[in-house]
Fold this protein.
Amino acid sequence: MRFILAFLILIAPVSTYAEDRFITLASTTSTQNSGLYDYLLPIFTAKTGIGVRVISVGTGQAIRIAQNGDADVLLVHHRPSEDAFLAQGYGIERRDVMYNDFVIIGPKDDPAKLAGITRASDGLKAIYDAQTLFISRGDESGTHKRERALWADTGIVPTGDWYREIGAGMGAALNMAASVEAYTLSDRGTWLSFGNKGDLALLLSGDDALFNPYGIILVNPAKYPHVKIDMARTFSDWMVSAEGQTAIGAFTLKKVQLFCPNANPKLNLKTICPTSVP
Amino acid sequence: MTILGQAAELVVSADAELIGIVGLSLRVSLTATLIASLLAIPLGAALAIWQFPFRQILIVISTSLMALPPVVVGLIIYLLLSRVGPLGHYGILFTPTAMIIAQSVLIFPIVLALTREAILPLNRDYKNLLDAWDVSPVQRLKTLIWDARFAVVTGLLAGFGRALAEVGAVIIVGGNIAGFTRVMTTTIALETSKGNLQLALALGIILLSIAVLINAVIHWIGSFGSKYQVTR
């Protein structure tokens, strides 16, 4: 009995804390790891009193969570999957929110000679020709799906010892690339905020094929009546409003802008986008 | 040395976010340990004391379940609690409650098996005496559990340690939501994935220190208890 009491005493002082008004946002690691949500969500919550609980996983898993009705809003970056999600009736009101780009990362000494190549598919071909190590996410994330699409462009089916599918997040892929001197495809935000770059460097960017747009989708309340559609719509509206878009554009990491707002082309926010982003 | 320095700095700074994370870790894992033990200790003792149908099978199953991977527990609880799952209408997925449920399931077999191991030799010594006194089954359970309490608490601590250290289950059912379901282990996983290896390791050192502190406290309670018993 005394041990049970001891446990109760240890548990007691930690009070429960939870907001009554909140929505659940299923999103990607690329947006979370860059710190965008830490910057953006307090502004939204201060204005509306709505808390946003972010589950950041790969795009594939985020869509799965939303499909099961376990989230109210979805913010991901793989257009074909987003369209399928809408077509199957799980989501409504998809909007463009922002974009940035994918980049090819590799060892500084660049054994596959990527420097100078402008097309992403040519870069991958060079990696294949040199048979240097390439780390693939292998987790059905937006980045992984894009990587598969880029390989499909080259006509190469990537298999062999040099091609390693690790089934993990972007950070894990970068950690591995840093330790075994491999190439990998990353989104620019995760790369910039990554703290263990080692001998890695950004070797290829700027190709239109590396365009990385993010969309926001509400989970369909007709499918899941428990979805907090009003608050979710308030969030979606705010993200594409002038205020939300300006906040996205103002977010920087190490003085570099990470996301380019593109919900409303009329606002001409493109002028504040980094030149590195296509 | 810099990592230890950073760990110390984090503790000294008493960052509100860090305190929240540590507090949630303790709250979830301690509650899970409490729930698991309330069920597993009586059942483990019963398995040690009485013969009943399927007893051997139960023992084999419970011992095997000690090897249950946290990620599998997480997945099962996720499927149960998801909106499309059988318990979906409670809407407790991605909450601390879901994490407590997952950890309770995870450590239940450990506490069960270790309780059984603790009671087994004691029951051999006490059996004839308790039979002679013709005590009720409840009284028999209480007596054996009480007299084996130090070994039982060791099993409890093993369960608590596993709960506090696991990341696979809580990250699936909790979702690692900042300020709501983010605990020590999921923070360490997150910081590692951000490439902040030093910070991740510093947090690991803090986690270990907390485990040491709690074990020390319970050890102290235990030794205090045994002294008290002797002088009585």
The domain at 17-223 of chain B is CATH 1.10.3720.10 (MetI-like fold). Chain B has a mean pLDDT of 87. The two ends of chain B are 48 Å apart (CA to CA). Chain B touches chain A at residues 20, 23-24, 26-27, 30-31, 33-34, 82-85, 88-89, 91, 93-96, 149, 153, 156, 175-178, 180-181, 190, 192-197, 214, 217-218, 221, 225 (CB under 8 Å).
